[in-house]
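Researcher: Next entry in the queue.
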Amino acid sequence: MRASATGRAGRDDESPALGLRDYLTAVRTHWLSVAVLTLVVGALAAAASLVATPVYAATTQLYVAVQGGTTSGDLLQGANFARQQVLSYTQFVTSPLVLDPVVAELGLDEEVDDVADRVSAGSPTNTSLIAVTARDTDPARAAALADAIGTRLAATITELETPLGAQSSTVKVSTVRQAAVPTTPVSPRIALNVALGLVLGLALGVGTAILRLVLDTRVRDADDVARVTSAAVVATIPFEAEAPSRPLVVQSDPLSDRAESFRRLRTNVQFLNVADRPRSVVVTSSLPGEGKSSTSINLALALADAGTRVLLVDADLRRPAVARYMGLEGGVGLTTVLIGQAEVQDVVQPWGDGTLDVLPAGQIPPNPSELLGSPLMAELLEKLTCDYDLVILDGAPLLPVTDAAILAKVTGGALLVAGVQKLHRQQLADSVAALQTVDARVLGIVVNGQERKARDAYAYYDYTPHEPTPEVPRWRRLVGARG
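Model: Structure for this entry, 483 residues:
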């Protein structure tokens, strides 16, 4: 197990790439922020549309024809010439040659370039028609501007197409449709803007959710552990809001999902390295607050319930918690034995039916690392592993201090507790690397505090026992049978 873990620890660049399922999970996790962004952007688009000044568009239509010619060939040639010229004529609409007289005629208080920005012209394919469109905040002014430009464009084309010295133009431009005063604005288009705003908001929400997924390096489940190390996840302990108030869940609520998870951990620990089964295990974590002490205690309780002779040692000589959680006297214990002031059998305290013993930490020493790495500690562990089936040591976190790494070297290996949402993947990688540096065995990872949702596969298999059926008195059974 150690060799495989070595190849992956700290190698986050070789982790599996995020897939579609990860992205969908991110969107589902952050669905509220996605919905809020979608609605906010949609509302902003609606508000911007409502406060925007309406713009109206009016269109006048012109027909271009070539005069002269009586044969069908002349007529066809003239029609082809008109269609070819129409595209050129549409470019005249925004030229000063057309717009200067229009601005003067209508008395517009605008520059020609500003008017040109509100005017456009086009021609349907393979036709001799020109559509001149003018936009304005006033619908009547838009219609008047379109008609004036159409009239002036026709006059300009006639002037340009009149040969030098001729009395008339070869091209005739006629107005076939006057501009009608529009009743509905072309801008803003509120429905379209709101729809585009909702789409944009949805895209921003989904993008934000995916970005949070990519940037979030916290350990959230066993898949995140697999991105860091190939060490096996030996148990996943579900989240429980009341866990801090009842750390001994195997004893206080033995039928709960959390207690069952610790029994599953017990089973997996019993099958770790069957050929070379460790007689002592140190339970540690990367950081404080990940649940290593409660994991140590509940694992010891679960093993004791199965008939295993277990000794639980509080080897966290900096912030001991075992005695406090279990309601034991913690003034004497491991440190008392190590400094030679007591024998181990004098400070070990029994728990429960006699299959579990507890060795508290004792007084906090000034040199925890030196005590735990001393030959006296190694001799004590050798003696304890002969007296018990399994010795579980609750060690200090790995990243702040080296105590647990020292213990993992002299024991059968380490169980590493990874607190969900409390630990980053790089920190987990650093912890695994710290154990490998001292050539300690990483027996497995315990993922602690993972929330179980209805979509999770194991949530469908609820097999919580019913309350025991009350015993019916013998006389009532007899009466019932006779009746």
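Model: DSSP finds 20 helices and twelve strands in the chain.
Researcher: Noted, moving on.
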